[in-house]
Amino acid sequence: MLTFDDLLHRARSLAGEGRRRALLGIAGSPGAGKTTLAERLVRELNGDGESWAAHVPMDGFHLADVELDRLGRRDRKGAPDTFDAAGYAALLHRLRSDTDEVVYAPGFERVLEQPLAGAVPVPPTARLVVTEGNYLLLDTGAWPRVRAALDEVWFCETDEDDRVRRLIARHEEFGKEHEAAVAWVHGSDERNALLVAGTRDRADLVVRVG
What's the rounded Cα separation, in Å, for the pair 182 and 169? Predict the structure, then answer.
């Protein structure tokens, strides 16, 4: 079984000395631990305040609620077609080649449940960009362009009961009543999780999160 140090070494080797900037994707179902793993990798890679690695989440490409309302997709927020996949792919391709200036990526405000433009700076010193999200390995729509921009994609998985519990707790933390959180997790989130699980075999590495 791979240790975290093994993962750290593998991530670091993607963008070795003198090589171009590399992009690492971490995919997985909602609540699988993608963000936790990405943040820990970047924190350790940056060591004592360096900017060798950057974290750019896919969540910044959520469509705003006002646009989801217009499209009639608000009740499916989090599904593949509620993201700007083409915009996400375009940013990733830019990050591969544009290393002479700061590139700004959108973030996502959990309390507001809305994307925030220009919230994530990626400095020229970043040799590795770690991005994470549910649909990095999806083969429909604009999502294959996302995979094409990434050097590797790891699939993050965990115990299903733990994943569901964490997901319910997350929805409650950001404002949903318990019953509403449970309904959302066993409805919309579960449909998305099944879709994501079907992409597991396309990953370069499967990472088991405890």
Answer: 9
Candidate from 30-34, 92-96, 170-174, 196-200 with smallest mean pLDDT: 170-174
CATH number where 17 lies:
3.40.50.300
> Are the C-beta atoms of residues 26 and 153 closer than 8 Å to each other?
yes
The HSE-up count of residue 203 (CA atoms within 13 Å, CB side) is 24
Q: Where in the sequence is the domain holding 49, given as residue range(s)?
A: 4-208
What is the residue whose two structure tokens read 């670091």? 12
Q: What is the pLDDT of residues 44-59, one digit of tens each?
A: 999 877 789 999 999 9
- Residues 112-148 as b/e (b if ≥16 CB within 10 A, e otherwise) read eeebeeeebebeeebbbbbbbbbbbbbeeebbeebbe
Our count of domains for the chain comes to: 1
